[in-house]
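REVIEWER CHECKLIST
Item 1: Sequence provided? yes
Item 2: Single chain? yes
Item 3: Sequence as submitted:
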Amino acid sequence: MSNAALTLPVGRGLMYLAVAAATWSTTGAAVDLVCRSSDLGPVAVSFWRFVSGLAALLVARAVGRSRPANRVPAAGQPWRRRLLLRAGTGLGLAVFHTAYFAAVATTGLAVGTIVTLGAGPVLTAVGAARALDERLGRGIVAVVAALGGLTVLVVGNNQGGTVRPLGVVFALLSAAGYAGATLLARWIGRAGESEDPAVTTAWAFAIAAAVLLPLAAAAGLLPHTTDLARVLLLLGYVAVVPTALAYPLYFAGAAVVRAATTSAVMLIEPVGAAVLAVTLLGEQLTAATMVATLLLLAAVGALVLAETRHAEDGAG
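Item 4: Structure as written out by the authors:
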């Protein structure tokens, strides 16, 4: 059976990306509650997320080892590319998560998530155009609309003075790590050499945890809190749902969906995060934010349609 026959259909890849984005939208709120309930900082939380997420992946893999796997064979994949994929993804995720948690702690969940995921499509589109020779075509209109919506979100939230420059810098650094991991996954996927997404995820988590361990140890690894059960429950949720479950789905989808479209679909995350910021954390959003949210959803829908048509034209 050929690699093409085993490759994930684009439509299913888009669905995987959407599910991953929806679960990721809850991460910032959960981590914010952890930081409020303990003295753990962004680096320590990122470290524990990767360690516990890796443990959850290994347990799931051990339980399902007897089941047949439907994956793209990686036997012919050069070891150098496997190493690059795993190490590059691990470093990208370490930067992405740690800087994102720092942005949330500095400037709030809504703004931190919005800036991170707003800059992501721009950085990814530029990188894809230069490195992967991908063109947006008509989808560029949707990207412009999405960025306009994100701008309105930031401006609307800034009325209360909640946008802090240092938080924006952390968010942009996070976006750079995210874009790098997205482009790397797409580059390997285009070469037809993608390995099992669960394997890629496990290696990436292990490398990210190893990179963060010295920094996390220096900042303090163990939480000091009067509500340890709540902290452990939240960390467990972050490890299983938006980490061990979401990342294999994300890597599988990113391997078959164009890089810029992947970033745009992930704009579901800031929309969900904005809702949680208001309902769960009590952050104040404006009417302009709601208008911008509708623009974001419309942009995501337009890019999904553009991606589907692009795949159909290629198949035809």
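Item 5: Key structural point noted by reviewer: The first helix runs from residue 3 to 6.
Item 6: Recommendation: ____
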